[in-house]
Amino acid sequence: MVDLLGLMMILDLHKQGLSVSAIAQRTGLDRKTVRKYIERGALAPQYSPRPPRPTVIAPFEAFVRERVAAWPELTGTRLLREIRQQGYTGSYTVLKRLLRRVRPPKAPAFEHRFETPAGLQAQVDFAEFRVEFTAEPGQERKVWLFAMVLGHSRYLWAQFVLHQDLPTLLRCHMEAFEHFGGSPREILYDRMKTAVLGEPEAGRGVIYNAKLLGLGKHYSFMPRACQPYRAKTKGKVERPFRYIRADFFMARQFADIADMNRQLRQWLDTVANARRHGSTERIVAEHFDQEQAYLQPLPAGRFEAVLSVQRRLSSDGLVSVGGNYYSVPDGTRARLVEVQSTADQVRILENDKVIAVHTLLQGRKQRSVLPGHRQPVRLTQRGDKPSVRLLPGHAVATRRLDVYEQIARHLGGAR
Question: Which residues, 6 or more positions from 111, have their beta carbon under 8 angstroms from its beta carbon?
Fold first, then answer.
């Protein structure tokens, strides 16, 4: 078989007047071969197709085709596990190439984008992030991103928090409304436990958290739960999470969560809300300036949601609330106290009387000890040893010295 370069050499030598024998001698080919290509002329040489080489997936192709034909929605990772049990040693990429050829094509489907009027709707959700703060090297922390997006303008307010409990949910709502300068008429939620408690047995309607309903009444918005297994109904807040993770969170360093939120606020103001949105084709901040006039005015004061629980005092006179510890006065006698939590405070009550008011701590394993709650240790008359300080709720009876002498004599006689 002569390749294209060899063919061109034969024809060129023939054009120079060399005989068939001379060309055969110079090229090392047989004279019949030279004569054949001279008669054929400048045609591309014909190659017979190579026989297909066996591939690593070939022995399993029939099985994959059968499985996909019966169960078109089977995932590639599931099929990979199944054929590996049969001895497949190839990569997942090879299997995906086969699946692209054998899987039935999906029917084309187009998503309908629901646009909402100005001031009507916002969407809310939490997303989990894992971060190592430079102030705590070597320790990975789990933080949560609360985000609220106005459906009309796509204006985004977000904040990283250490909890996704009900007090945090309520506080973030209030801070978002204050930033917006108003509230929407309805808010769409995923079925987060802090917002949606469940459904009645009849299956009609949704049971919302009573505190969330109280917040909605105070700020004049109606909570709405998105349909189960229909995450796309809340896509306006789901997509920003991916955007924040890729454009803000990755390849950054944060000293602590306060620094994290400072950087986030700057990014929201200068990047996220300053960009031209791909769906609306408008600058987000400029669009929000127009939507703001349609938001409902804020009430005169903040919403005061009080969450009341009972807590037992620790041996050092502290109460555990949300992973943090709050002090009570040294004279507290009750071992079981009532704790009332709001969005900003922790109030501790003994027998319905407020004995301590603390600012709510945002971290974990922190202590808030108010001034005056721990009396200084008194020294004995000799001044060399501190006297014993009694813990809250404890008392020791005092006796005359002759009582102890009688006890000593009695014990000595018993021996």
Answer: 232
Rounded CA-CA distance 226/212 in Å is 16
Q: Which residues contact 38 (CB under 8 A, 6 or more apart)?
A: 10, 11, 14, 20
Whose tokens are 């068939």? That residue is 20
**What is the arrangement of strands in the sheet containing 336-341, beginning at the earlier edge strand?**
307-312, 336-341, 345-350, 353-359
Listed in sequence order, the DSSP H helices in 234-301 are 235-244, 257-267, 284-291
Q: pLDDT tens digits for 153-182?
A: 999 999 999 888 888 899 999 999 999 999
Interatomic CA distance for residues 156 and 180, integer angstroms: 10
Exposure of 64 by Cβ count < 10 A (0-12 exposed, 13-18 middle, 19+ buried)?
A: buried
Residue 368 backbone dihedrals phi, psi, to 5 degrees: -120, 105
- The pTM of the full predicted model, rounded to 2 decimals, is 0.58
Token output for 335: 């071992």
How far apart (Å, rounded) are the C-alpha atoms in residues 16 and 24?
Answer: 14
